[in-house]
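Help! Submission page says 'invalid entity' but I think these are all valid:
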Amino acid sequence: MEQDHFSNNGPQSKLIDAAITLFSEKGYAATSVREIVELAGVSKPVLYYYFKNKEGLFNAILDEASEWQEQIIRNVLDSPQSATEKLLILYTHIDDAFQEHPDFFRFIHSLILGLPQGNPVYDLERFHRRMIDLVREIYQQGRVKGEFLEADPEDFASLIIGVNDFCLHLECLNPEKGDSERPKRLLNLALKGLKNKD
Amino acid sequence: MEQDHFSNNGPQSKLIDAAITLFSEKGYAATSVREIVELAGVSKPVLYYYFKNKEGLFNAILDEASEWQEQIIRNVLDSPQSATEKLLILYTHIDDAFQEHPDFFRFIHSLILGLPQGNPVYDLERFHRRMIDLVREIYQQGRVKGEFLEADPEDFASLIIGVNDFCLHLECLNPEKGDSERPKRLLNLALKGLKNKD
DNA sequence: GTCTATACATGGATAGAC
DNA sequence: GTCTATCCATGTATAGAC
């Protein structure tokens, strides 16, 4: 139960869990099918039976990541808070998700920031665009209400997402000395000159 | 001459150029020795003669990257400017280097941000620490001169480097619609609430 | 649905001639 | 120093029995 990334306990979820663990350590290309099935405790053909091939596993994991992102975005948009608080909630949700499934996030994050490295093709930029669009939307709502000073919405969004990406990156580098307050501190630092003081 | 990453034109530099091109497209693990020697126009044993093996090529490239970083840092520290201007110069130097050798930087950048992916071990975090230390140093100089408001030096440095990393990342994603002014704009945005207005 | 055993391709590295 | 030819390990994927 404890190390489970996904719900049920059939061969599918055992394979997905094993794949996430290994992909997040060594990457897709450097992980062999043999290792995956060994860690999952099944034999090779089981993998080819449930997922079409190694690439099928990869796609299953990324589809799951998409759903997570959508859910985070929905939660943030639905919250009845101010724009600044919405940004804080976004940061918090992302960090919570990261704490709960660190290797899953390490993997996704490295895919988005890294090179193809022999991975199957997948529209990874979508994750990024989705986040930028969300923050731009939040900025514009806040701007209308006089919560923020004038700035280019795209630049504002890039700043906010860039800072958060960097924090995630730092946490990926050394999860041991994780400073769970850093994202919030850096967000405040970045917002210092952008908020309207009234 | 035009696509050269390194000085002379012997087999060494042809191999290094070819390796950089391919590594930056597909990553280390996914690039085969066969491809490298084909692009370099030499045969396999030449690679094993000059560099001990594939890993030797990798190390040669990263050592070169280290020297570049040191040179940028020296230039920034030696400039007689204010702290804010030093940060701008840092951003400019990095961007210049990126414009001049895009695939070289794409590769280094993805190594730092990505996962091991079967790469040889190399102290990549050093690149990152070096930059953070530099910016913290600049901040403290500026703080003494009353140029900046009070902030945690480490957080300040994280913010500045994080923003720049993100800009590099955006440029790596789509070099075509490169917005060469973005780094400076985002730097200003981030510094808005941190500078002393006198 | 799940296993054992195996086919088949590719990649890193080297032997040995020139 | 550079080549051709080759060795050998590893990896993906499947055939065929249960």
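Support: the input was valid. A stray whitespace character was the problem, and the output above is from the cleaned input. DSSP finds nine helices and no strands in chain B.
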